[in-house]
Amino acid sequence: MVEEVKHSVMFIANKFPDTRGIYVCGHSAGGQLAAMLLTVDWTQYDLLQNIIKGLLLVSGVFDLQPIVKTYVNEPLNLDEAEAIRLSPLCHIKEACLHSKHCKVIVSVGEHDSPSFRTQSREYAKLLKDVGFDIKFKEVEDKDHYNVVHDLVYDNYSLTQDFLKLVNSR
User: Where does the Alpha/beta hydrolase fold-3 domain lie (predicted)?
Assistant: First the structure.
């Protein structure tokens, strides 16, 4: 799926060559997929390195290693090595090398599970420590589902943060 998301970005960039950049939002497993875009060297695909301008990562799964020995892994069938390969937390150096220009919002619901809250905080801290323009936001009174559901509302604080990110260019 990481390859499919990467190919989606390549398709959009090639279909709209005059674009000034692409902004991506991902929730839960989608947050992991979006975060992995930071590790891509876009120049090897004849795209500008800064094609991804910003990410909104909502309650993302940034470390897949804890799920390897759980029922969640049954359909995925990940081994330890693949979990590491697909975990954004394990690829901060690559993200720094390829995407330090990208602005990132990492958010999580106040009532999300401890694992999602811990991984979100840790990922945001690691990105900040290597110099990313990062905003971490724990959204009050939200859980894993309604933290993303409410993005449809103009007055929702996370929607406003994402619109500011997009308009900041």
Answer: 18-144
User: Following DSSP, what letter does each residue of 20-83 receive, concatenated?
Assistant: S-EEEEEETHHHHHHHHGGG--GGGGTS-TT-EEEEEEES-----GGGTTSGGGTTT---HHHH
Look at residue 22 in the predicted model and tell me its pLDDT: 94
Stated pTM of the model: 0.93
Question: Domains in the chain, please, with CATH?
Answer: 2-168 (3.40.50.1820)
Q: Look up residue 137 and give its DSSP letter.
A: E
Going across the sheet that includes 103-109, the strands are 22-27, 52-58, 103-109, 133-139
Contact status, residue 57 vs residue 28, Cβ threshold 8 Å = no
